[in-house]
Amino acid sequence: MAAHRPKSPLLVLTHPNWTLAATILASSLAFIDGSVVNVALPAIGRSLQSDAAGLQWTVNAYMLPLSALLLMGGAAGDHFGRRRLLVTGILLFTLASIGCALAPGLDVLLAARAVQGIGAAILLPNSLAILGNSFRGAAKGRAIGTWAAAGAIAGALGPSLGGWLVGTIGWRPIFLLNVPVAAAAIAIALAAVEESGEGKQPLDWTGAGLATIALFALTWSLTMWSSAHVMSGGAWAGLGGGLAALGLFVLVEHRRGERAMMPLGLFGSAAFGGLTLLTFLLYAALGGLILLLPYVLIVGGGYSPLQAGAALLPFSVGIGFGSRLMGHVAEKIGPRWPLTIGPIVAGAGFALLVRVEPQASYWTSVLPGMAVLALGLAGAVAPLTTAVLSSVDEAHTGTASGFNSAIARTGGLIATALAGAVIARSGTDLITAFHGAALIGAALAAAAGVVAFLTLPARLDRPG
Predict the structure, then answer these.
(1) 3-class DSSP assignment, residue 362
(2) Residue 391's CATH number
(3) pLDDT in tens, 247-280
(4) Which of 379, 271, 373 has its CA nearest to residue 333?
(5) Are residues 324 and 394 in the same domain?
(6) Is the pLDDT of residue 331 over 80?
(7) Band of pLDDT at residue 368, cut at 50, 70 and 90
(8) Does residue 244 share a domain with residue 115?
(9) Are residues 320 and 410 in the same domain?
(10) Residues 6+ away with beta carbon under 8 Å from 163
(11) CA quadruple 231, 232, 233, 238: dihedral positive or negative?
(12) Which residues contact 192 (CB under 8 A, 6 or more apart)?
């Protein structure tokens, strides 16, 4: 079934592909930024005289508000209007990107990165909710597959282009890559995207505050532990406080019922619970790899930033070309088998990365693992997104997409916090620690596939 036709007389572009284009461009901002900064970390560290903990926070300052506020961003779109929040998020993200490019020191960079994370937390769930609301049936599977493919391709181009910029001009211009993409996304959204979601869901400020506090405290304590290799009193306090805030969050959401930011009734479905656990496991594994592999190749293998960025190309391009097809396949046969087989194959790809050695050839050490990993994730990314949107009623698509994105970013956030234990190493110890991280990633991905097999039905139809 085709997309809904815009009703507003102000809309001048009526083809559904314009809606798809707007959501792709908007979400690509976050995908590009998330991949390109990892390639620039060594250069940022040298330029701003940052230690391993500072480099972790260059990533975490973005990931923390992104993870903590995705729920609120999706719920706000369901309440105030998804197109309105999409444009707001893009504007905020773009202004913060310019701030990153102009940052005179690490403190300013971290502050601007945090604002970027807030903008991404607003734009990401609303871009996906708009997509889920605009297409039906097989058209939805194809649209989400295209969305996922475009995001993967953007993630592929980001490290290569960013690596070239870092090697020739410096790390600051990488943040300006976002500006033309943002301008195009805003123009198309205002001209072609129909408003949806206005007034459908109440806002839950208490829940948002508790989720933010919990994630901040947990991530801070894990980062402190992974950097110092010991749990200090402050780290234990952060861990305890984060767990307490998480418990309060669950209690508050339970009492608010359907008025909650994250209605716990959604977890009455085994499928939604299984998709949540699968997402956490798979993206925790992936988040650690995307951060660590470029760093290890540059610091341990002597790669240039451009070479390290290009090393990720087979991975992202493979996902890009496979996601559209698998989105269509999952719509036909259901998500259970793609989400079972895909993560298990990805786990084999993670395991192959133990072949990465400083002096080994890229073709025999890095490429085999990246190719197998791309094959597995191509089978999982689009079906996962489609399954999440199909597991809830239409009124909660923004909340559900925000929650699922939050779980994915939280998995990556925790992996980033723990990655400090690898980044702090040097020489052969760095390579050994990376091999251990690759095996952990393999186990997490394989476990995600098992979860899908045990919890998902053959077909997954949206509740009425």
Answers:
(1) helix
(2) 1.20.1250.20
(3) 998 898 888 877 777 777 767 677 788 888 998 9
(4) 379
(5) yes
(6) no
(7) very high
(8) no
(9) yes
(10) 39, 304, 305, 306, 307, 308, 309, 310
(11) negative
(12) 6, 11, 12, 13, 14, 15, 18, 19, 21, 22
Shared domain check, 385 and 370: yes
Structure confidence at residue 97 (pLDDT): 94
Q: How far apart are CA 120 and CA 212, in angstroms?
A: 15
**CA-based nearest residue to 275, from 48, 68, 456, 154:** 456
Query: Are the CB atoms for 375 and 29 separated by under 8 Å?
Result: no
pLDDT at 118 over 50: yes
Kindly state whether residues 317 and 411 are assigned to the same domain. Answer: yes
Q: How far is CA 64 from the centre of its chain?
A: 12
With tokens 């005289």, the residue in question is 49
pLDDT at 152: 64
236, 285: one domain: no
Classify burial at 82, counting beta carbons within 10 Å of its beta carbon; exposed 0-12, middle 13-18, buried 19 or more. Answer: buried
With beta carbons less than 8 A apart as the criterion, state whether 177 and 32 touch: yes
Range of the structural domain that residue 229 is part of: 204-260
The terminus-to-terminus CA distance of the chain in angstroms comes to 18
pLDDT tens per residue, range 2-16: 444 444 444 445 567
Q: What is the mean pLDDT of the chain?
A: 80
pLDDT score of 372: 93
194's tokens: 């129909």
Token pair for 336: 């259970």
Residues 73 and 166 in one domain: yes
